Amino acid sequence: MTDIGNSPAFKPGPNAKLGDIVRHAMPWSSKMKLPGATPFEFLAAIFLVLLVLVALFVDFIPGLVSPKLPYGDFSQLPEWSLNGLFGTDDIGRSIFSRVLYGARTSMMIVAVSTTIALVSGLLLGMLAGYYRGIFERAVDLFANALAAMPSTLVVLAFVAVTGPSVVTIIVVLGIFDIGTYARVAKAGVISQSNRDYVLAARAMGATDSRVLLKEILPNLIPALTAVMPTLMAGLIITEGSLSFLGYGIPAPAPSWGGMIASSTDLLSRFPVLIVGPILAIVLTVYAFNTIGDYLAQRLNNRERES
Amino acid sequence: MLTNAMPYIRAISTRLITGILVFLLVTFSATALSSLAPGSAAQLILGDYATPEQIAALNTQYGYDLPVWQRYLSWLGDLLRGDLGVTLFSQQPILGVVLERAAVTFEIAFLAMAVSLIGIPVAMYTASHPNKLTDKVMRSISTVLLAVPTFVIVVLFSYLFAMVLRWFPATGWAKLTENPVANLWYVALPVLCLSLHQTAYLYRVARNEFVTTLQEDYIAVARARGLPLSYILFNHALRPAMPQILTVMGLSLTYMLAGSFVVESYFAVPGIGWTILSAVKSHDIPLVQAILSLTVVIFVIVFMLVDLGYALIDPRVKVS
User: Fold this and answer.
1) Which of A240, A245, A260 sits opposite B265 (nearest CB)?
2) What is the DSSP code (8-state) at residue A265?
């Protein structure tokens, strides 16, 4: 394998593919393990890594102003500076700063909700797939009940009773994804539990918990990873819609949906101010969807080969 | 004859039982939800300035002082009698309000679904010319569209079509039964916004299905016999793709009900999404509960129809 990035003669000529250009501009890209990824999938992966880094370290970006304090004039148009990149909102806060801090809000909700959903879904799905019987029926019923309502509606019902809060949204959205993870885990356990390695482990006297955790669980990870990005994209969209409607993240905290909602009031005079938050949410959902498709496809190929 | 129908009857009845169990589970949770209210449900509804007597009176009237299971049983009884009480503020019968608003949402959802069917012929064309320019362009467009949340589409479309081009009204409403033309005029933009996502989704699924189907031997045989491509597509390729298309359409209805909150509130369409948002704002818990229950019924019926559709399209599908 010759490393394209190290050859100084490479010039992106008229026939160069986007992939060649990406590999040339980022020589380390060939070291990243994304076999068979298209350039778009590769860029999506980089975008997601950046997004997570921004969410974690946004406080340490030098020169970035606070997202909650006024920075310039009201509804200032975009200019070529760090804080003024997307302009300022209706009370003079830097939209760029709010978009970056909004990434933290979104990523935090995605991370916590997914953890809740994954841990509970995995537990329920594994038990249902392993022991079957009445337990499987109960888990199926629970998953069916979750599938029979839009999550937005249930969050709204909770908000009607308890008022808007980040905790309510995170917990309800997390509970909603339990159904899908449980289904995937259950199907995985059922298909794995008759495999030879499981029978061998049992024959050697392994306990149920050992078989489930040490033998079967590692083999569930690919299928669960493949559905995860798509569900995460769904979480971002639902949180965005709720914040857009005014029932999501309570006001001063930056959220992309809320920012889009407040920009719509200024849309007739300053349409350009809505670009930043829309770009953020669309690119993020696009990146998650793209990575989800990539993983799902890889998984399918792998299963076909084996 | 009857022996042929037996598996279907059994399949329908098991689905029905599951559906009823799901309905009971969800509606019970909805009833229990009001117990989560800080203080009591009546306190929440009446606000901070209500006297203890008023709160106690409302708690008694709506049964919020009773244990959850008792409240749930009386709610079920009310449902069977077809009388869910009145809305808290306008004092209209809840069942009537919900059904009237649901009709509006259904109109929009069905129109949007009809619009999204455009995705199927487009998918047929691009799938029969895979990796040509149109295929690549349409695939990119659909991928991008799927990444744009409905509320962003709503904002962009209302800006483009109602503010810049002024083709459609941004808000306003006319009843279908009173003025059908004006009604269609008002629903045009909401329908467009709801259908965009769906068209992209349907297109993508249908395209992938058609591409796989068109590689089958029987398609090659049909082509070798000189049958025209359009005939092959509609008569040989469509049917194997139907189960997938049907699933997407079933899911699309659930998606549209969720999307209707955003679309209806933005364009002020008096449908079910708009109603629940105003009910949430005014803490009209009985109304929220009724809408939640109706949604569950609709979803369960739709999923059941999709399942039965599989069996009708593909006789190999076991109906057990």
Assistant:
1) A245
2) T
Q: What domains are defined for chain B?
A: 101-276 (1.10.3720.10)
Q: Which residues contact A10 (CB under 8 A, 6 or more apart)?
A: A4, A20, A24
Cβ atoms < 10 Å from Cβ of A77: 12
**β-bridge mates for residue B86, sequence order:** B93
Interface touch A153/B254, C-beta < 8 Å:
no
A-B C-beta contacts closer than 8 Å: 124
Q: What is the CA radius of gyration of chain A?
A: 23
ipTM score here?
0.85
Query: In sequence order, what are the residues at sequence separation of 6 or more whose Cβ sits closer than 8 angstroms to the Cβ of residue A35?
Result: A298
What is the least distance, in Å, from the CA of A214 to any CA of chain B? 34
User: What is the per-residue pLDDT across A95-117, written as a single tens digit (0 to 9) for each?
Assistant: 888 899 999 999 999 999 999 99
Q: Which one, of B320, B258, B233, B296, lies nearest residue B109 by Cα?
A: B258
**Looking at the complex, does the CB of residue A165 fall below 8 Å from at least one CB of chain B?**
no
> Between the ranges A47-61, B60-74, B75-89, B150-164, where is the mean pLDDT highest?
A47-61
Asked whether B284 and B6 are in contact (CB, 8 A), the reply is: no
Judged on CB neighbours under 10 Å (0-12, 13-18, 19+), B264 is: buried
Residue B91 burial (10 A CB sphere; 0-12, 13-18, 19+): exposed
